[in-house]
Specification:
Blueprint: H1 5-8, H2 14-27, E1 33-34, H3 46-56, H4 74-88, E2 98-101, H5 104-115, E3 121-126, H6 130-138, E4 142-147, H7 163-168, E5 169-175, H8 187-200, E6 203-207, E7 233-238, H9 240-243, E8 251-255, H10 257-268, H11 276-287, H12 291-313, E9 326-330, H13 338-349, E10 351-352, E11 354-355, E12 366-370, H14 375-389
Parallel strand pairs: 1-10, 3-4, 3-5, 5-6, 6-7
Antiparallel strand pairs: 2-8, 7-8, 9-12, 11-12
Length: 391
């Protein structure tokens, strides 16, 4: 069966490929430990689960099993707005400046359909989350890669973008704390990005999925803290990472009302919304005690320290990242790139790491380790890695 040309332009989804390889090896009896996909191993906190169970069984809610898009829980929009005010000091109109998403990936994938015409350009970080690129290609657009280089702190050089590219650009994606590089950005960088978007008449889209996974006193800013940012920017967030809700598929987009209305128009034709019980549970997460988030940060900080200290003992010179639940490290000498290194670890140690080239051309020469697996497995993975690299 002949596939559409648009599908041929999009490479296989990196994490799906990793998952298939892991399942294949495990079916052969290999005891594989995967440090590839960032999917929290701890359960969703009990207060959120209790609210889910209450809402899904609520006899007073006649719409509890009906389409969530036709029966939205406006309290979720209000809770997001309240959380932004408390966390960032940013005021949002819950009716026009907050949009429910079926996870952040939903918004990232569908946004180009609202703004990209064939031949239009999306400016996307490289290395970066692969959906920035895939969403644009599905919409018929072109992706211009913004190199994230170590010597620039993995921040893009917006001034280096050729004028002929910026004239055709409609979207600019940023993501801090950054996946996969773990880099962080300050408000000064965000101010420059907002000004760039204003000068070139494009929509700035900031993915803040890892905004609450930060360490050592660092707190990630929102791009909407920049004065005038709502004129040119939206921010996409998720409950997946801070509340261990990856499978629940709920997130939000906030900011420019016109952009959110356009994205909502796409979604109205693509999905039917989120189960009301999940929306109520998300309200409980945002409005409830946040000790669970602090506990997760403590857990990931401990795991981060274990991985960084192990790698540094083996000859790396890594600084401990201030954000995300990943470690991003250069491939050691003696390997023909990141795929070669990842393949060698899989063969020698039955440990999966993600090759950096999977995130883009400028990710070559690096690999990523995820911290989202139980402590004992992470310790075993580090022991295997140490044995494999000191043979």
């Amino acid at each position: 069966m002949e596939r559409a040309e648009r599908l041929k332009k999009v490479p296989p989804y990196l994490f799906a490929e990793i998952g298939r390889r892991v399942r294949e090896l495990r079916s052969q009896g290999v005891d594989v430990i995967s440090l590839g996909i960032g999917d929290p191993d701890r359960p969703t906190p009990d207060p959120i689960l209790r609210e889910l169970l209450r809402a899904v069984q609520d006899p007073q809610d006649a719409a509890r099993h009906r389409y969530g898009g036709d029966n939205p829980v406006f309290a979720f929009n209000e809770a997001v707005a309240e959380w932004y005010q408390k966390r960032f000091g940013v005021e949002l109109d819950p009716a026009t400046e907050v949009l429910q998403l079926m996870g952040s990936k939903d918004g990232i994938a569908h946004l180009p359909l609202a703004f990209i015409n064939p031949g239009d350009v999306t400016l996307a970080p490289d290395p970066g989350y692969t959906v920035y690129r895939a969403g644009t290609l599905f919409a018929g657009g072109t992706v211009y890669s913004l190199p994230l280089l170590a010597e620039r702190g993995f921040l893009p050089d917006l001034e280096a973008i050729p004028q002929e590219v910026s004239r055709r650009a409609k979207l600019l994606w940023l993501n801090y704390p950054n996946n996969p590089t773990t880099a962080v950005a300050d408000l000064a960088f965000f101010r420059r990005a907002v000004e760039f978007a204003r000068q070139h008449g494009l929509l700035l889209c900031h993915d803040i999925a890892y905004g609450e996974i930060t360490f050592d006193g660092y707190r990630a800013p929102s791009i909407l803290q920049v004065e005038g940012a709502k004129e040119v920017a939206i921010e996409i967030g998720s409950l997946s990472k801070p509340y261990n809700m990856t499978g629940w598929r709920i997130g939000y987009a906030v900011g420019n009302a016109e952009a959110l209305a356009a994205l909502a128009a796409v979604k109205e034709n693509m999905d039917s919304g989120i189960l009301r019980a999940i929306q109520f549970a998300a309200v409980a997460a945002l409005r409830g005690p946040q000790e669970c988030v602090e506990q997760m940060k403590t857990l990931y900080r401990r795991r981060r320290d274990l991985v960084v200290e192990t790698l540094n003992r083996l000859g790396w010179r890594l600084e401990k990242p201030k954000g995300t639940f990943y470690v991003w490290a250069p491939v050691p000498e003696g390997y023909d790139g990141s795929i070669s290194f990842a393949s060698a670890l899989l063969e020698r140690a039955a440990v999966v790491v993600t090759p950096g080239v999977g995130y883009g051309e400028y990710g070559e020469g690096y690999f990523r380790i995820s911290l989202t697996l139980p402590d004992d497995l992470l310790q075993e993975a580090m022991a295997r890695l140490e044995r494999a690299l000191t043979l």
